[in-house]
Specification:
Elements lengths: L4 E4 L2 E4 L3 H7 L8 E4 L4 E4 L4 H26 L1
Antiparallel strand pairs: 1-2, 3-4
Length: about 80
């Protein structure tokens, strides 16, 4: 899909079609995370910090309980 950037005051905006918004579950006012590798712009939903901290806690428990086993399996 090729899109054209639009000037909005002193900024530039990328207008997203209704179909694209529906496909991604976004709408006007949605918060998104924007990143770039210097060439590609990536727009994604922001990371859910609660989910990440819960996952981190679970991984910590697994490491404490099975860390030695994981190390042996990795060898």
């Amino acid at each position: 899909m090729v899109k054209k950037l639009t000037r909005t005051g002193n900024s530039v905006a990328l207008v997203l079609d209704k179909e694209l918004l529906e496909a991604t579950g976004l709408d006007a006012g949605s918060t998104v995370e924007v990143s770039t590798d210097g060439r590609v712009i990536v727009i994604s939903p922001p990371a859910d910090k609660r989910r990440l901290s819960k996952l981190d806690a679970i991984l910590g428990k697994l490491d404490r309980r099975y860390g030695a086993v994981f190390k042996k399996l990795a060898e």
